[in-house]
Amino acid sequence: MRSDQLTPDIREWLVAHGWAPGRDLGARAEELVQVRVRDSARQECPLRPVPAAVHVIRSFGLLTLKHPTVQRCSWVMDPTVGYDGDARLIRELSSGLGTELFPVGYESSEYGILLVDEGERFFHLHHTGGYFLGGNTLDAFSRFLTGLPDPDAEDFFV
Fold first, then answer.
1. How far, in Å, CA of 60 to CA of 77, rounded?
2. pLDDT for 35-83, tens place per residue?
3. Is 22 exposed, middle or buried (0-12, 13-18, 19+ CB in 10 A)?
4. Contact, 46 vs 37, CB < 8 A?
């Protein structure tokens, strides 16, 4: 996603949380990705970093994107946070969707994992199941800010 594709409200929200046009974590993003890759290998369920997820991590990694009206809800863009067994659940969701998924962060209220697929779609792995967050980064941020309901990921299964 190019910064000129951002709507003014999303641009303001991102800038208020530490983002800037052209932001790139560079080598630090690769370190974060490799932490997650090693952890999934430790769980004996390897995850492959897809380019769209790596791009999201490079652009937004290590930011805490607070919801403007829900106090305790933020998207914490840290792909290294997870829990034992999450790699298997991510792979199961990937299988249903027919695409690879890779973690890009988590949501702070219930610690569900934020995932991006090969086509830049965002999904949420919550303890109650998988949910669709948006068709691309801009859509996901917009849906987060406006509080649109998150359809079941199963609606997107192949």
1. 6
2. 999 999 999 999 999 999 999 999 999 999 999 999 889 999 999 999 9
3. exposed
4. yes
Kindly report the pTM of this predicted structure.
0.95
- Name the pairing type of β-strands 101-107 and 74-76: antiparallel
Bridge partners of residue 66, in order along the sequence: 74
The sign of the dihedral angle between the CA atoms of 30, 32, 37, 38 is: positive
| Domain region containing 20 | 3-156
How many residues make up the chain in this entry? 158
Please report, as a single letter, which amino acid is at residue 17.
Answer: H
- CB burial of residue 66 (10 Å; 0-12, 13-18, 19+): middle
Structure tokens of 116? 């991006």
What does the alpha-carbon distance between residue 64 and residue 122 come to, in Å, rounded to a whole number?
17
How many domains are contained in the chain? 1
Cα 115 to the center of its chain, rounded Å: 4
What one-letter code names the amino acid at 77? M
User: Amino acid identity, residue 85?
Assistant: G
